[in-house]
Structure prediction request, 429 residues.
Amino acid sequence: MPDLFDLTPFQKFELWVGGLQAYHSKSGPRFGQSDPVPVHQNYSEDVKTSILIVQDMIRLTSNIVLEEIEEFRGTEPALVIDSTKDLRPQIRRFHSRAPELEELTSFWDFLEQYKLLGMSMTRLTHLSRLEFRAYGSLLTDRIARLKNSGVYGSLLDRSLADGEFRYLMQRDIVFGLEMPGIQEQMEIILLEFFRILRLIRYIQDEMRQRFDVRKLLVLFGYCYLSYQSFIDLLNRSREYLDRYQPEIVEAIFSATFALKTETRKVFDEHLGSIRPDATVEETYAEMEDALGLTQNAFRQCFVGLIHLLNPRFDERRLFDDMRQRHEQSVTLMNDLTELRQLSKDAGEGDDQTTWVAVLQALETFMETSMLHLFFKDREPIQAFNSELRQSVVDDRRFLLHRFEIFLTTLLGEVSKRWVLTKFRSSRQG
Prediction:
C-alpha cells in the first residue's frame, strides 16, 4: 500500500498557499500571542520570507503544469512541449484546447511579478505594517481568484492521497454506521484528522531537508489556523451527533479537550517561547518537540476514534513507523531503568567501580537512547552529567539521589507514551 502521507506537488502547493494567506493576514508568523505588534516594527524580513516561499510556489507550479501536460498528451497529441525551456509561452499556443493550463500559467506569471515586487521592496530600509499588508493583499486576492477557478477545483478533486484514504475509510472504518448523515459527518471528521496529520508530516520532512526558521513558522501558522478550524468542526459535530451517537460524542469531547490542551502547550510554551537570539540547534529542538507533541496527540485521538468505529482496524496500515517507534521507546525505558538502578546502587555505597559504571552508562545513554527523548528532557540529563563528572566525593551521594528521583519521574512520563500503551492494550486484548 502506498504511503498515504506522501504529498503530490499540488498538495504541497496547497499547503504553502494556505500558509502564505495566514502569514499575510496575521502580518507575520504570530500565533498564540496576546502581545501587541510594535507600531514601528520593520517588516523587511517578513517580505524576504514571503519571497522565499513564492520561489518554492513557482517551482511547485512548474511541476503541476508538467503533470497536467502529461494528462493532456493522451488526448492532445499535438501538445509538444520542451521542458528544458520556459513552459509558459509554449503552453499559450494551446490556449483554446488547454484552458486549465492557461489558468495555471497565468498564476505563474503573477508569482514571478510578485517576487520581483518583493525584491524591490527589500531595498527599502524600513517597511511598515501597512506596507506589508498592502503587499500581502495582492497575493491573497490573486489566490482567491485562483481558488474560484475551475482548475483549482479540478486539481483538488484529483487529490490522490485523499481519495485512497477515503476509500480505506469507507470500506474499513465507517461501514458500520447505518445512518447516512452520521456516516458522512464521521468521514468529514476523520478526513480532517488525516489532513492535519499529513501537514505535520510535511513540516517534519521540510525541517529535515532544509531548516529555514521563518519559512517553517509560516507553516506552523497555517497549522494553528487549521487546528482552530478543526476544533470548531468537532464542537459543531458534537451538537449534531448527540441525538444519535452518544458514545461517539463522548469520544469527540475527550479528543477536543486533549487537542486543546496539547496545542496550547505547543504554541504557547514551545513555539511561542522561542527566543530571537536562540541558536539554530535550540530552535530546531523546540520545533521538533512541538511537532512530536502535536503528532502524538492527533495520532492518539485519531486512532481512538477509528477503534470506536471498528475495534479490529490495524492502525499500522496508516502509520508504518509504529513498530519502530515502539521498539525505540522500549529500549529507552530499559536503558532508563538500568541507569536508575546503577545510580541507586552507587548512591547507597562508596564503591568506585559502581561510580565509574554510572558515568559510563550515562555517556552511552547520551549517545544512543537519549536521542528518543524530547529536547526539554535532554537538557536536565546533560546538566546532571556535567555535575556528576565535576563533583567531589562528598557530594556524590546527594547528586545520585537527585538523579535517581529525576529518572523515576522521567520513566513515568515515558511510560505514558501512546505507542507503549497501545501495544500493551493490544497484547491484553
About this structure: The chain has three domains: 9-158, 161-317, 322-428. Confidence is low (pLDDT under 50) at residues 31-39. The first helix runs from residue 9 to 25. Residues 161-317 form a domain with the Four Helix Bundle (Hemerythrin (Met), subunit A) fold (CATH 1.20.120).
